[in-house]
Design the sequence.
């Protein structure tokens, strides 16, 4: 299994679209791993989580084709995670797709309502929708996916996803603060191979709706103590905001000693 981090930034990106704060100005100068597009991951080139506004850039920069994505899992409808207008580019003359298999989209009711509005007007884009509900398993070809409750939006059911494939497990754990109790209970019995956690708040102490360095470290410790993770589990922090006040190397200095990798756009984890 290969997990590729297409983007690792929060809603505004880093540097922020209109921002002139110190962290954004320094990121513009330093470049490299300090430049972060909106967050998304892709697994084995065919299973993608979220559809951010930076889809086109991601495909160009990282050499993937959205035509190869067969299963798209949406966490929630915030615009940095779900930009449904890009789905219109699946129709002719904007796209000539050789493989006429449908794109399967999984998400909450708000996600599916948005997708179905597009599908009703343009059925030729060939999309099949699936309601993702907390704690109800989904089958997606070779992948088993378990949607889990997130601590994030108050106006909708926000989801995390636990993926199982080829004997490996991956927890897509952002956007979320400290996990709800239902999520902790559901994770009991698993020993996860890759845990991806939300570090939006950086140096800030908050663990509500998003986490930062403190929350990511505490989550790792809790998972190890509960047997949800082992010494062989890979932990990765992602979804960073300039408001957290920590550029890439500063994040590494705080998280690496705790056994946590700091994601950057283009990071690939092989399990």
Sequence:
């Amino acid at each position: 299994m290969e997990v590729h981090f297409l983007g690792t930034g929060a809603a505004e990106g880093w540097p922020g679209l209109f921002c002139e704060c110190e962290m954004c100005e320094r990121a513009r100068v330093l470049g490299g791993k300090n430049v972060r597009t909106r967050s998304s991951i892709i697994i084995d080139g065919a299973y993608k989580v979220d559809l951010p506004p930076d889809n086109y850039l991601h495909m160009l920069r990282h050499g993937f084709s959205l035509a190869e994505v067969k299963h798209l899992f949406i966490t929630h409808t915030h615009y940095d995670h779900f930009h449904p207008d890009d789905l219109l580019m699946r129709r002719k003359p904007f796209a000539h797709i050789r493989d006429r298999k449908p794109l399967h989209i999984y998400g909450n009711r708000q996600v599916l309502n948005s997708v179905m509005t597009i599908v009703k007007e343009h059925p030729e884009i060939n999309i099949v929708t699936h309601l993702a509900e907390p704690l109800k398993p989904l089958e997606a070809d070779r992948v088993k996916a378990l949607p889990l409750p997130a601590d994030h939006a108050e106006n909708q059911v926000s989801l995390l996803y636990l993926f199982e494939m080829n004997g490996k497990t991956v927890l897509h754990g952002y956007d979320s603060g400290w996990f709800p109790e239902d999520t902790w209970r559901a994770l009991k019995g698993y020993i996860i191979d890759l845990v991806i956690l939300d570090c939006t708040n950086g140096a800030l102490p908050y663990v509500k709706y998003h986490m930062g360095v403190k929350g990511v470290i505490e989550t790792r410790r809790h998972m190890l103590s509960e047997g949800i993770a082992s010494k062989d589990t890979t932990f990765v922090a992602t979804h960073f905001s300039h408001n957290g006040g920590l550029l890439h190397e500063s994040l590494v200095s705080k998280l690496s000693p705790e056994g946590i990798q700091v994601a950057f756009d283009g990071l690939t984890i092989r399990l």
